[in-house]
Design a protein that fits this description.
The protein has about 325 residues and is an alpha/beta fold. The protein has two domains: about 160 residues, 3-Layer(aba) Sandwich (Rossmann fold); about 130 residues, Rossmann fold (3-Layer(aba) Sandwich). The protein has eleven helices and twelve strands. The strands form two sheets. A six-stranded parallel sheet has the order 2-1-3-4-5-11, sandwiched between helices. Strand 8, helix 8 and strand 9 form a beta-alpha-beta unit. Helix 3 packs parallel to helix 4, helix 5 packs parallel to helix 6 and helix 7 packs across helix 8.
Length: about 325
């Protein structure tokens, strides 16, 4: 048995010591921000899970922005202090949230992490990690980029928050795949702090400074929306191979009108639904997997109306 699995089982055992006393109770879903459609879709999934039973209630919260890390730490601390039965957490920072998750572990409150990983030192203090395989998703977009633009030229990377677990996998593996499989030159990455207006301004500057760009990648929802708007304002729609990430209405329209070549869409609803189900399983004494892949679909104009895309778009 490997060390990670041993730690996870020990954490589950500790959590289960509280399960008898907390079979019914609040499951706190705490995300990176409540101001994004992506996280509201997580809320819809969590709501669907909680509506399927009567033992537990669910609360949904998050800071105003993804960069308000201290506020998210406080939300977790507050959940622990009020004695919730379990926590579903999308950590905005892999290091900053680790002590709060450890405190939940020490308080015998089971925690399921979604979307972005915690630092390796936190392994054993939570019961499961549910996420898109962000590295595989980054490679999927990179492969599609090469298919579209070939192996030479400049590709800009518009990222979001440096150091976040999902960003490290998504952008890192995108860049590594291009380096290993092409001679494409990376411009950036630029960090929007998950603010659409920042991404719009940054993309506008990048397009002006690099008129020879052949491709561009917007690595999360607000970044990709700002990027798409900048491309349209610059009159470059359809002239540059642009790929986004996530699938709100704005991004879907960009795919339909040709501003974006494709969007890689995560199973955000599934993160909420499966995350809450995982906590309820731990509280019920059921065994759960330590990693649950919530999937990604590359949505293009050709498949946007197909069931595979419609099941993940929001």
């Amino acid at each position: 048995m490997n060390g990670r699995l041993t730690k996870l089982m020990a954490a589950s055992a500790l959590a289960l010591t509280a399960a008898g006393a907390a079979q019914a109770g609040e499951i706190a879903v705490i995300v990176k921000t409540t101001s994004s459609n992506f996280w509201q879709n997580v809320n819809l999934g969590a709501t669907a899970a909680i509506e399927g039973q009567s033992e537990h209630t669910m609360t949904f919260d998050g800071p105003a922005t993804e960069s308000a890390i201290a506020d998210q730490v406080n939300l977790v601390e507050n959940a622990i202090n009020r004695g919730v039965a379990g926590i579903v957490l999308a950590p905005s920072d892999p290091e900053a949230l680790a002590p709060a998750v450890k405190r939940a572990y020490e308080s015998a409150i089971p925690v399921v992490i979604i979307d972005s990983a915690l630092t390796d030192s936190a392994e054993g203090t939570y019961q499961a990690f549910l996420s898109t395989d962000n590295c595989a998703a980054g490679e999927l977009v990179a492969s599609a980029m090469i298919d579209k633009v070939g192996t030479e030229g400049k590709v800009a990377v518009m990222s979001y928050v440096a150091g976040v677990g999902s960003e490290i996998g998504r952008v890192g593996c995108f860049s590594d795949y291009l380096a290993a499989n092409s001679s494409l030159e990376i411009v950036g990455p630029y960090y929007s702090q998950s603010q659409m207006a920042n991404a719009l301004n940054q993309t506008t500057d990048v397009l002006a400074a690099n008129p020879d760009l052949v491709g561009i990648f917007g690595a999360n929802e607000p970044t990709a929306v700002g990027m798409g708007r900048a491309i349209e304002q610059a009159g470059k729609a359809g002239q540059i191979a642009a790929f986004g990430f996530d699938g709100n209405a704005d991004l879907q329209e960009f795919v339909r009108n040709g501003t974006l070549e494709a969007i890689a869409v995560q199973g955000s609803f599934q993160m909420g639904e499966l995350g809450v189900n995982a906590v309820m399983d731990v509280l019920a004494g059921n065994k759960i997997e330590s990693f649950i892949d919530t999937g990604v679909v590359l949505v293009t104009k050709d498949n946007i109306d197909a069931p595979e895309a419609q099941n993940v778009l929001y």
